[in-house]
Amino acid sequence: MRGVHLFFVAILLLLIACAHGKHDNHDAGDVIHDSIIIIDTTNTIPSFSCPPLPPHTPKNVSDLKPGDIKVVMALGDSITAGYAMDGKSSLAIMEGRGRSWCIGADQNATTTYNFLKFYNPHLVGGSVGTHVATQDWLYIASEDVLNAAQSGAVTGDLPQHELDYLLTQLKYNPNIDMANDWKMLTIEIGANDLCGTCPVNGTFSKTSPDQFEAQMRQTLERVRLNVPKVFVNVLEGFNISQVYTLGQTSLYCAEVHKQVYKECGCLFKPGPQSDSARQEMDILGQQYNQRIRNIAADYAAKQYPDFAVVVQPQGRDTSIDKFPLSYLSSLDCFHPSVLGHEMFAITLWNNLITPAAQKVTAIVPGQVSIKCPTADSYLYTW
Length: 382
Description:
By secondary structure, this protein is α/β, with parallel strands linked by helices. It contains twelve helices and eight strands. Helix content is about 35%, strand content about 10%. A hairpin with a 2-residue loop joins strand 1 and strand 2.
């Protein structure tokens, strides 16, 4: 049923997009605002131009540098799948996996994967290309590679469905030395769990903080027990209600949200009852973030030499409602656009090479530059 529901939402989005055909001749960096297209030139993404680093042999997971990573993997939902990033540029709902913020491997794409590849040209695992959105645990392994994220996924889907795929791909990839290669796994999840805070068609699927924590712990333990030498990034989420607030600044986005509100009923349904529901979503999201911090602290205390869980907090204080509309997909005004993915990629990269106490906790468009590591920099676990 999960795939069927998303399919009909996708069809509805395309019908709305066709009805607004006068906007179709714009690119992913344009802002759709009422009936006007505003080209956003004030928030350009900087290019990567860092110097190389000397060779390095890590002693343990806390001694890693960018060039030490040989394999990149991802678990998550439609954000990491690259859902709708190209907006209304296609007659189908597409996933731009090759430009996904943390694991996209398309040439010249602004992704954390490609930043890492600069320091290790033999890096493997990145997803490539663009394909029709898939659900119900269908993968196109030749393109998805080690990007196990699926549109519509919730936290409970990580420990079995997504990890089943990922572990199989790791096992049979001839370019991976499972025992000796250092690997990076990025986990971004929780938005669909928050969307279950309100019942939709009589179905109530709220994920409590306890459930969220248990599923995350199950996921991480299965990784630790089955995959040697892993540096894990776990992303804190932002206040999801701000996507609705930003969308209300555009007549087009407000109409899209009204038509597809059942996709995330608590977020998009108008009215005072939904104002309260959106506030509840944000509170629940903050509780998820605290559980992520608790889990990471527990793993840090265990001091495993070849496994670490690192909180990447750039979403914690991010104000999505202050973003230009060009950072949202022009198809659904919900998922990040290509520009949004690029911004996420840069902030993750910067936080990777920044100690915990100095990590950025908010993404501010127009105020982001790419940090360059030095010979003294690490992929910080502390």
